[in-house]
Amino acid sequence: MNMNDHQTWIVAAVVIVALIAAVAFVVREHRRRQSQHLQRRFGPEYARVLEAGGDRSKAEAELLAREKRVARLNIVPLAPAEAARFSEAWRVLQTRFVDNPRVTVAEADDLVRDLMVKRGYPMADFEHRAADISVDHPQLVETYRAAQAIAVRDQRGEASTEELRKAVVYYRSLFDELLDVRSPSRPKAPAPSRVAAHP
After folding, report:
1. Full-model pTM
2. Same domain flag for 96 and 67
3. Are residues 173 and 90 in the same domain?
């Protein structure tokens, strides 16, 4: 091998190493940006999924799959008449809490589920509903899970009246967020008010 061939091989090796380093940098940067995007989008849900899975790649793959799944759904705002009907149903439900808190919690769960279906979320088990909600309402999915946990404990007769009250408040926070009304003058209604102190 002459000197020119030797130099050519050295240059080629340096170029290949540089390309590998550049690709590795691009991949790392892409993953870093993707992680930041998912952390911003999912908030506390990102940490929950990461803790449950124990592996960042698997957790992020799960969250990306949620984004893609929800992006394919046809989530629509409510017509004003539908929103009024749901609001009235909640008002009636809330007035029954003092007399029958256990029934009220079950009805609140059903009403939130009916509202999700009306908006375009698919009928599914609780974990799938929570996963879908986490994409656009990440700050509320924790309280939704807390409400569901109380409802499950109540089915076993283990929830106190105060816990049932909290469950109704938690359901109400998601209910208010999902009560998005279609308006002819603008695409979305203003953000609903936060949860009242009492169910």
Report:
1. 0.73
2. no
3. yes
